[in-house]
Amino acid sequence: MAYYSDYLALDVLLNAQHPESDKHGKPAHDEMLFIITHQTFELWFKQVLVEVGTVITSLNRAYVPETDIALCLARVQRVNRIMEHLVNQFTLIETMTPGDFMDFRAYLNPASGFQSIQWRILERTLGIPENVRVNKHYMDALSEEHRTALDDATNGPTLFAAIQRWLEQIPFMESGKYAFWDAYKVAVLAMLENDRTEVRTLAVAEGNDPTAAVVQIDANERGFLALFEAESYAELLASGARRMSQRATLATLFISTYRDKPLLHTPYRLLDAIIELDKVVSLWRFRHTLMVSRMIGMRVGTGGSSGHDYLMQTAMKQRVFDDLTSLSSFLVPSHVTPELPAEIATRLQFVNEAKG
Ligand code: HEM
User: Fold this and answer.
1) Residue with the nearest Cα to atom 43 of ligand 1?
2) Could you give the 3-state DSSP secondary structure of residue 197?
3) What's the pLDDT score for residue 23?
4) Contact 329, 132 (CB under 8 A)
5) Is residue 122 in contact with ligand 1, taking CB distance under 6 Å?
6) Is the CB of residue 101 below 6 angstroms from any atom belonging to ligand 1?
7) Residue 52 counted as domain residue
8) How much is the pTM?
């Protein structure tokens, strides 16, 4: 028979706070808050890893049934809510003043968030490319045991890879002579031409020079065309400008363009939730950085980094799903969205609508 505190292992959990300041004979009241805050973060990281793990397993398959997409969506949304909760949770630790923190900070050396193995597992599991990492030597902060555990926990596909694999299988993009990308290219080129005309007309009316704006539109057009040509796309991949495969990129455009078609609703919402996930992880980084600058100003971290400056850079540079976010540059307004061939449009309806 289960008993509340046994079931929750409260004996272990509630006896797992051991302030260093007590051990040094100089008890610092706020160290308990500091420990419990970190522990609760780590507990939530554990839940996040469980959710992300199941999403990867569901998507990393040769065929992903529609019902599983709905489940993946629910799980990613849960992760997003947890991360938002954690972003808000920083206000708790901010009830500790920088002065109170100084009372026990020295005892923490050289322990640091650098040694949060779950955070490192999460970063790798999401699929942060190693070449964008600000701290190339992050493994050095970990114990031998944790280095092995990190490698073991992350030797499977990343969320990025799983999302890419799923996108690559999205059907409906081609049928007979129809290919989505051909129709879409015509629509976008017409839209950009229209943008050029508008920019020039406006500049003439206001007596301004339209060159800079037209140069920007030209650059957008080149970027857009490169998505459709295998060779140019390979160059984008080689230069690091894009990471996601061409097929997955085109599928993202397709889903985003026809998101109102019933069968694409859930896939679209899943992509949206993934973009949101990237956002909440960045928000976590920013929020942590703001809290850190308030607590220690411009001091170096206990883990030896430059502190605020290092953390700010991780927030700016270490994004995973930029490929999805950046595609917004190439979305067209609904009035110029190319019509789908009737056969594909029918297949994208729910079964009962298609029959009616
Ligand atoms: C007074 C509160 C805190 C201060 C002053 C602080 C300070 C820092 C600093 C300076 C770093 C950079 C590494 C270093 O040189 O040590 C860091 C990293 C980190 N901290 Fe905190 N931190 C605090 C609270 C927290 C909390 C509550 C968490 C929650 C788990 C956390 C998690 C992390 C993680 C995961 C990293 C690694 C970030 C990365 O390398 O991308 N920190 N922290």
Assistant:
1) 113
2) helix
3) 97
4) no
5) no
6) yes
7) yes
8) 0.93
Which residue has the CA at smallest separation from atom 26 of ligand 1?
38
Is 315 contained in some domain?
A: yes
Looking at residue 84, which CATH number applies to its domain?
1.20.58.480
Give residue 356's pLDDT. Answer: 44
114 C-beta closer than 6 A to ligand 1: yes
Q: How far apart are CA 222 and CA 206, in angstroms?
A: 28
The DSSP result for 56-87, as a single string, is HHHHSSS---HHHHHHHHHHHHHHHHHHHHHH
Asked whether 303 lines ligand 1 (CB < 6 A), one says yes
Give a yes or no: residue 325 inside a domain. yes
Statement: residue 352 has pLDDT above 70: no
How many independent structural domains does the chain possess?
1
pLDDT band at 76 (very low <50, low <70, confident <90, very high): very high
Q: Greater confidence, 84 or 224?
A: 84
Among protein residues, the one whose CA lies closest to atom 19 of ligand 1: 113
Q: And the tokens for 47?
A: 């839940």
CB of 287 sitting under 6 A from ligand 1: no
Angle CA(41)–CA(70)–CA(173) in degrees, nearest 5?
120
Whether residue 44 is contained in a domain is answered as yes
Torsions phi, psi for 119 (to 5 deg)? -65, -40
Q: Which atom of ligand 1 is nearest to the CA of 299?
A: 10
- Domain housing 268: 27-173+246-332
Q: How far apart are CA 168 and CA 183, in angstroms?
A: 19
- Cα distances (angstroms) measured from residue 75 to each of 49, 116, 270, 324, 343: 11, 23, 10, 19, 33
- Which amino acid is it at 326? S
